[in-house]
Amino acid sequence: QVDSSKHLMGAYLILLALFCVVALLMVNLHDSGAGRRFRAIRDSELSAATMGVNLTRYKLLAFGMSAAIAGLGGAFYPLVAGSVSPQPFWLFTSLQFAAIAVLMGVRYVPAAALGGVFMAVIPDVLTRYGHGTFHGHPYDISYDWFQFAVGVLLIVQLILLPDGVWGDIRHRARNAISAARLVTARRMKVA
How many whole angstroms separate alpha carbon 160 and alpha carbon 183? Predict the structure, then answer.
């Protein structure tokens, strides 16, 4: 077992830089011709194939890129965790990551950062403050409730925010910017 406590900050900075580089590449890919082809396949395979998109090529490319990104992140796991074991990667953890991705919005790159913050902060808050008393009544909120809460939030999100949390934030920000521009334009006309 490796003592990684001295290297955690260095590993964090390296992983943060790696995330920023990968996020920048994904944003650029999203805006490229290949990104349009990926979105066309996601929206309708039949329409994409009709337009001449090579489905097999782009599906394999998407699979290879996602495997490479996962491999980059997984390469640092032993450095951060101090050992390698399959225990943290069981089925429900994978399902939880998928649920958080859908909850935050799978169409947007910044949603990955938001999902990472959610996955890091909420379990920690539950672990630290999940036990105590509230108005004289004892309570005990374990980590098991986090999984239940993620499931409930996912159902609510799919009904109320089909584009995910980040999609809703983006939509509200665009509306606020449009409203501010409209108010500014009206003030300019009055003056």
Answer: 29
Terminal-residue alpha carbon distance, the chain: 71
| Rg for the chain, CA atoms, rounded | 21
Enclosing H/E stretch for 112: helix 110-129
Residue 21 near residue 72, CB atoms below 8 Å: no
The secondary structure of 69-109 as a DSSP string is: HHHHHHHTHHHHHSS--SGGG-HHHHHHHHHHHHHH-TT-S
What's the rounded Cα separation, in Å, for the pair 164 and 106? 7
Distance CA 159, CA 153 (A): 10
CB 103 within 8 A of CB 157: yes
Query: In the block, which residue shows the tokens 């409203």?
Result: 179
Summarize pLDDT for 77-98 with one digit per residue, the tens: 887 777 788 877 788 888 888 8
Q: What pTM value is reported for the model?
A: 0.72
Q: Which two tokens stand for residue 31?
A: 């805006």
Distance CA 113, CA 27 (A): 13
pLDDT in tens, 7-28: 678 778 888 899 899 999 999 9
